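Each letter names a residue; the fold follows as tokens. Both lines appear below:
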Amino acid sequence: MTAKSSTFIRKIHSLLQYRRVFVDWRVAASLRYSLKEETRLTRLRLRGRGAIWVRPKYNKTAVGEVFIAETYGELLPATPPKRVWDIGGNIGCFAIWLLRRFPEAQITSFEPSAPTFELLAKNQAEWEGAAWQIRPFGLSEKDQTVNAFIPFESYGQTSRHATSGEAIQLNLRNIATVWEEEGRPSIDLLKIDCEGDEYEILAALPEGLWNSVQTILLEVHPRENKSPEELRNHFIAHGFSVLQGVSNPDLWRATRNPA
């Protein structure tokens, strides 16, 4: 098979997936593949229930990874999660994707970027009746406001570890304190996608929270003077086994080992 025919087949599969996911699949696909960088706010209806608001120029990558490539699908635990913490909620793609699979899930999404949180709130409003809560801050090792950048005009990659882009400030809270404030919940699924802050978050998890978590989905990001082995060691030390994704090797699932 030639590279050209392989690309054509992948695009056909992608279009079929857009059709399976979106009522407005033609609009969704055209926004993804158009050479025009569209910035206007667009509402895309989902099959079955609900909708998602996007700014295609800034959100098409997240929509493609979560809904079309379904990179999280291969790593979901076998048991449907009841309580989920979504650290790095972005505009809500992961939460919505999960609610479509597990409508009874209780999800709390944390998002520190003010412009991204605004769109997250708009998307949450589309899911009236769902047990989905949102928080206008991120989680880290301590309470702090940090300087960050929005690189590549992509709000999903906003990070205090970026070195260039549009300047922004992020409000971060101590994860241990927030867990106490939330009532020390048991968490079936802890998803972390926070553009490099995963090192601080895992290091700051209190022992009680480690013991309450069953499965962690983690996206690993490169950091200067940081190694993914540091993250793996946290999991091993707390009795978790790690599986890397096939479609995205930077996506890990850490599962508690049987007692």
